[in-house]
Amino acid sequence: MSAEEPAGSAYTAAPPMELPDDSNLVKSFIAELRRRAEVELEGGQVDLSDGALLKFLRARDFDGELALQLLVNYHKWRRECPEITANLCPSSVLGLLQNQYHGVLDSRDTTGSRVLVYRIGKWIPKDFTAYEVFRVSLITSELIVREVETQRFGIKAIFDLQDWCFAHAFQINPSLVKKISAVLTDSFPLKVRGIHLINEPKFFRPVFSMIRPFLPDKIKPRIHMHGSSFVHSLCQHFSREILPPEYGGNGQGLDEVCQRWTQFILSSQALLQQLSLGAAGRGDGEQGGSRQVPRGAGKPRDSGSCSR
């Protein structure tokens, strides 16, 4: 019997993932992670509120050691990739959003995962770099990771490669691939449950061959390539009720999905400004805010404020 819960408690045998946030057992995990993080993350301000720490605990199924490593990697990755993380304000990627490049389906899949859609053909390489494209993904990730259900059940992504061309391929380089791989592996508190590629042309295969060695082993089996005749195989992974008509479903159309998500991102301007690298130490509004970690060097560099 757990010493944290009273005799006869319904929580006695329940794993932490299934317990409410205010249970004594969950609180003990949070307190221990905070204690260790204050030692590991010396210098600057880091958000060690209950809500912030729970994201990392849930991402690693309450394994304290793994959660701490993920927390440390997250802040290290953000400092080392300012070209992506320094400005998460919507204005920095407004053109991509207005092109309806990206959206998040309103409904979750049957496993509880959020479903993200990326329309590669809406990315015009001469107008936007691959780093800006990746920033769109990071913006969405920072917003949805605040959802408890998403922390528990993760995400799945659909990449529509219709109109993929050589101009896209030329923007993909090993440095960028490594940074993306770090997020997929051990630097962001989201569980990636599946990656689905549709409409991929033949000349995408060499690019994917370059990317694949950098991907973690646990992610590789979760990548599904559906080709241009994708409806049947895609619907084996997602219910038709949530998929847009363009993908063989009965849900909202892709344009509406993207428009609605763009509006949500724009309405999150203030939060995204806080989350930009120069303001990374300030609290994100979850249960308490940031805490000054004693001593040490290495405050995140200032990225400036959002332009409106």
UniProtKB/TrEMBL annotation:
BP terms from Gene Ontology: vitamin E metabolic process; vitamin transport
Cellular component GO terms, alphabetical: late endosome; membrane
Cited Gene3D superfamilies: Alpha-tocopherol transfer, CRAL-TRIO lipid binding domain, N-terminal domain of phosphatidylinositol transfer protein sec14p
Top-rank lineage group of the source organism: Eukaryota
CDD domains membership: SEC14
Segments of this protein annotated with the region Disordered: 280-308
Molecular-function GO terms, alphabetical: lipid transfer activity; phosphatidylinositol bisphosphate binding; vitamin E binding
Occurrences of domain CRAL-TRIO (ranges): 93-255
Protein name as annotated: Tocopherol (alpha) transfer protein
Organism lineage: Eukaryota, Metazoa, Chordata, Craniata, Vertebrata
